[in-house]
Amino acid sequence: MHIHILGICGTFMGGVAALAREAGHRVTGCDTGVYPPMSDQLRALGIELIEGYGAEQMAFKPDVWVVGNVVSRARTADGQPRYPLMEAILDAGAAYTSGPQWLAENLLQGRHVLAVAGTHGKTTTTSMLAWILEHAGRQPGFLVGGVPLNFGISARTGSGPAFVIEADEYDTAFFDKRSKFVHYRPRTAVLNNLEFDHADIFDDLAAIERQFHHLVRTVPTSGRVVVNGLEESLARVLHQGCWSEVRSFGAAVSDFGAEGEPDSFEVLERGRPAGKVQWELSGVHNQLNALAAIAAAQHVGVTPEAAAAALCEFRNAKRRMELLGVIGGVTVYDDFAHHPSAIRTTVDGLRRKVGKERILAVFEPRSNTMKLGTMKSQLPWSLEQVDLAFCHGAGLGWDPREPLSPMGQRASVAGSVEELLQQVLAAARPGDHVLCMSNGGFGGFHGRLLAALAKAA
Q: How many Cβ atoms are within 10 Å of 105's Cβ, its own excluded?
C-alpha cells in the first residue's frame, strides 16, 4: 500500500509514518517546516518529504491520503485555500482517512492495545508501560508522543501481541471531531487524570469527560480500566457507565498505592507490599504514573514486582525533566509542561529534589489553551514554589504582566527570546536550577542559554 500523509512532521503523524514504513508500506508525505530532527528521522526510513501542501502532489496517486489534524478548510486573507492539496483531494473524490483511523484499521487490529489517556503524564506513563513490557520480554509495539530514552525511538510495530499507545483526547481531523483515542479500541485503558484543557476545541470539562466516556465504552468486558482514584472528574466518567474490570491507584483506599518518597517507594497492592521502585525521577506525579503503568502491565501478565524492577531501570522520555547540562554551577532542565497543573507538579518535583536551592522557571504559554488566556489566572499558583519566574510573552492575545502581578518582583516578562535570555543570564548564579518549560521549540532558548553560560564560564 502507498500512503501519503498530510502533516507528516507532527509527533503523532511522524510516528504513524514510521510504523507504516516498518510494516512494509510505501510512505510519502508533506508538511510546512520540514526540518530536523523529524525530517532526518523520516528520510532515514526511506520516506520522501515535500515542503508545503501544493495540489501538484496529486501526481503521487497513493492508495489513500492520510490527513493529520493540522489540516483544515481554512483560507488565507486573500481567499485562497491554505491547504490546496486537501481541496484537490476532495474535488477528486479520492480516498482519505485520519491518522488514528488508518492506524486502528491497519496496525492495531488484532493486537492487545494498552492505551494511556489523561490531561498530564501520557508520554511518561506510556514510556513506562512500554519499558515494563520490554523488560519482561514481551517485545511490545508502541507509539509515544516523545522519545523514550530506553528505546531511542518514538514508535515501533513490535513482535509481541501487546501495543502500547499514547491516547490523546485532542480531535482526530477536520472531518472527525471525536478524540483520537476513540479509534484505538483498547483492551487495557489507563485514565491517568482529567482536567480542563484544549479550550480551542472543548467548551468545558464536561465535554472532555464525555469523550473519556466514549473511550470507556470501547473497552470490552474482559478488559481493564485503570483509573486515578484521586480524580473526581474520572469518578464522574465511570459513573456514566463502565462494563470492564476497574483497578484504581493513588487514593488512600485503592488497588495500587505507594509508601515512601517519590524517588524510592514500596508498591502496595491492596495494602500489601508488591515491589520496590528506586529511580532518578522526582515528584508525586511520577509516582502516580508508575502505579498506573504497573496496574496496566499486570493485565497482560507482568507481576507488580517485575514491573517495579523494570522501573528501577527506566529513563524518562526526552523533554520530561531532561537534564541538559550543568555549566558554571547552573543546572539547566527542559520540560514539556505548559498547562498550569503540569507546571505546578513539575516545579514541585524539582523542589523536593533540590531543597532550598533556587529555582528559576522559564516558560512560554504557547499551547492553544494558554494562548486563549483561559487559565492565565492560575499562573501564580502554578509557580508558587519557584524563586524567580521568566515568561516569554510574545504572540499572546493578553498581557502576562497582569496575571503574574501577584508574584511582584519574582516575575518578569520578555517580548522576545533574546530579551528573555538576557533576563535569565542577569539573574542566574552558581547553585541555581533553571527549569525551561514549553511544548514547542522555544526559539532555541535552551541551546542559546547553555552556550551563553559556557561563554560566561
A: 11
pLDDT above 70 covers a percentage of the chain that reads 96
Nearest to 18 by CA among 36, 3, 34: 3
pLDDT < 50: residue spans in the chain? none
Grouping H, G, I as helix, E, B as strand and the rest as coil, residue 205 is helix
Q: Secondary structure of the chain: what % helix, strand, coil (to 5)?
A: 35, 25, 40
C-alpha span between 226 and 191 (Å, rounded):
6
Asked whether the beta carbons of 259 and 268 are under 8 A apart, the reply is: yes
How many structural domains compose the chain?
3
Q: Which set of grid coordinates corresponds to residue 229?
A: 482514584
The pLDDT, as a whole number, for residue 185 is: 97
Question: Does 103 map to a domain?
Answer: no
Residue reference for cell 513506562: 128
The Cα 58–Cα 74 span in angstroms is 19
Q: Taking each helix axis as running N to C, give the angle between helix 304-311 and helix 122-135, from 0 to 180 degrees, rounded to the nearest 10.
A: 110
Please tell me the predicted confidence (pLDDT) of residue 105. Answer: 96
Q: Could you give the 3-state DSSP secondary structure of residue 329?
A: coil
Query: Are the C-beta atoms of residues 153 and 18 closer than 8 Å to each other?
Result: yes
**Residue 155: its H or E element:** strand 155-156
Range of the domain at 41: 2-98
- Specify whether 211 is located in the same domain as 294: yes
- Before 37, cis peptide (omega within 30)? yes
pLDDT tens-digit map of 416-432: 999 999 999 999 999 99
Would you list the DSSP string of 380-415? HHHTTT-SEEEEE-TT-SS-THHHHGGGGGGEEEES
From first CA to last CA, the distance across the chain in angstroms is 55
The C-alpha cell that represents 60 in the structure block: 503521487
pTM equals: 0.78
SS3 call for 337: coil
H or E stretch covering 453:
helix 445-456
Kind of pairing, strands 188-191 and 96-98?
unpaired
Q: Both 356 and 246 in a single domain?
A: no
> Which grid cell is 267?
508498591
* Segments in 204-339 forming alpha helices (H): 205-217, 232-239, 284-298, 304-311
Same domain, 287 and 216: yes
Q: Which of 330, 369, 338 is nearest to 457 (CA)?
A: 330
Tally the residues of the chain: 457
